[in-house]
Amino acid sequence: MKKYQVMYYAGAAISLLVGLWHFTVPWMFGWASYIPYETLVVPINYVNLCFSFLLSGLSLTVILWGKKVFAQNPEALYIYDFLLALWIFRVAVAMIYPCPPESNVWTS
Q1: Are 23 and 52 within 8 A, CB to CB?
Q2: C-beta separation of 80 from 9 below 8 A
Q3: Distance (Å, rounded) from C-alpha 60 to C-alpha 69?
Q4: Of 19, 23, 37, 80, which cross-links 55 as Cys (Cβ 3.0–4.6 Å)?
Q5: What is the rounded distance in angstroms from the CA atom of residue 48 to the CA atom of residue 63?
Q6: Is 35 left (phi over 0), alpha (psi -120 to 50) or beta?
C-alpha cells in the first residue's frame, strides 16, 4: 500500500506544481505578442488564470484529503477521480490535436 501512497502524493504534488507554474506561463513566454487580436489577450489570460486556480486548488485538496481517499471516503474519491479525469482528458486532447512544432517558439 505504501507504493501507491507515494505515487498518489507524488502525482498530486506534480499536478500542484504545474498549476502554480501555469500562473506565470503567459508572461514567461509572452503569449500576448503571439495573439494577433488585442481583444483576445484578456480572455485568454482569464481562462489561463481560472485553469491554474482550478488545477492548483484541486491538487491541493487531493493532497490534504489523501487519508480520506485511502479510507475510501466517497466525497474525497469524487475529487480525486475528477482530477484524474482532467489529466486523462489533457493527454487525450494532446494526442488527438498535437501542438504543431512551429508554435513552440521557445524551443527555436
Answers
A1: yes
A2: no
A3: 13
A4: 19
A5: 22
A6: beta
Joined grid coordinates for residue 17: 506544481
The SS3 call for residue 30 is coil
pLDDT in tens, 20-35: 999 998 888 888 888 8
Phi/psi zone of residue 30: left (φ > 0), alpha (ψ -120 to 50 degrees), beta? left
CA distance 80 to 83: 5
Which alpha helices (H) appear in 23-73, and where do they start and end? Answer: 25-28, 31-34, 38-64, 66-70
